């Protein structure tokens, strides 16, 4: 389904009979335009943290990484990283591979910045209100960090956009967040919540299969938010919405 400014439709089916959804025409609420900053040549790299467990007490620095993270690099590779100063022990650079580790020591490995594969960066705004923003995600752009794409994602562009907009919603944090997943190769509508309450509600609807896409331009005027304490969700557990919001 191809969704434009004149065909975008979002509505929710109530989860219970006690919840009422008021739908109305809301032309004035739809936004136009796009945002996005070109990607830098290199990302910021990554930091991986470990804490030395009692069972690891007495291991040397090189033994720890070559056994605990042998799938990331062979022993010579970890030796090179240690000598490059890419690993710290309790905040201090550890360049001696035979350093004996103590229980509770915090180890941090810094993966140097790298150039990520090419990806689009512009995002079209289809709809925006105080609770959410609907974006037209292009094919080739990953929603959340993963694999080789740690910076070139929708989430990063949302963070950059929010910082330029002086975005501030106390209940959510510093920027809007996606409430569902779309594959990197999938183009379509991506919903992002501006508040914790909106994120909880929208993610629940997608997970329950109660989100609908119809052939007219409507939007729920009142969101039937669920009440109760908000529990922060892990991004990787967000439901997939490709079957609802995609364009061919």
TrEMBL record:
It comes from the Eukaryota. Gene3D superfamilies: Pseudouridine synthase (3.30.2350.10). Residues 132-208 form the Pseudouridine synthase RsuA/RluA-like domain. PROSITE patterns: PSI_RLU (PS01129). PANTHER family: MITOCHONDRIAL RNA PSEUDOURIDINE SYNTHASE, RNA PSEUDOURIDINE SYNTHASE 5. GO terms for molecular function: pseudouridine synthase activity; RNA binding. It catalyses: a uridine in RNA = a pseudouridine in RNA. This is RNA pseudouridine synthase 5. Pfam families: PseudoU_synth_2 (PF00849). One of its GO terms (biological process) is enzyme-directed rRNA pseudouridine synthesis.
């Amino acid at each position: 389904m191809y969704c434009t400014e004149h065909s975008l439709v979002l509505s929710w089916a109530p989860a219970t009979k006690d919840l009422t959804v008021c739908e109305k025409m809301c032309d004035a609420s739809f936004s136009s335009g796009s945002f996005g900053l070109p990607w830098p040549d290199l990302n910021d790299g990554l930091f991986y943290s470990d804490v030395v467990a009692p069972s690891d007490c007495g291991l040397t620095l090189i033994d720890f990484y070559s056994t605990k993270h042998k799938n990331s690099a062979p022993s010579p590779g970890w030796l090179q990283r240690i000598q490059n100063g890419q690993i710290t022990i309790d905040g201090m650079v550890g360049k001696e591979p035979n350093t004996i580790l103590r229980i509770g020591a915090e180890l941090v490995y810094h993966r140097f910045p790298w150039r990520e594969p090419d990806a689009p960066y512009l995002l079209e705004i289809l709809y925006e209100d105080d609770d959410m923003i609907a974006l037209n995600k292009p094919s080739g752009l990953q929603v959340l960090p993963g694999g080789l794409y740690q910076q070139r994602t929708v989430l990063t562009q949302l963070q950059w956009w929010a910082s330029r907009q002086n975005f501030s919603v106390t209940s959510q944090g510093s920027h809007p967040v996606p409430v569902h997943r779309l594959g990197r190769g999938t183009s379509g509508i991506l919903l992002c919540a501006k508040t914790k309450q909106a994120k909880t509600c929208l993610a629940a609807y997608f997970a329950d299969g109660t989100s609908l896409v119809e052939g007219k331009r409507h939007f729920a005027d009142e969101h039937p938010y669920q009440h109760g304490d908000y529990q922060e969700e892990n991004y990787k557990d967000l439901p997939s919405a490709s079957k609802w919001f995609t364009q061919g």
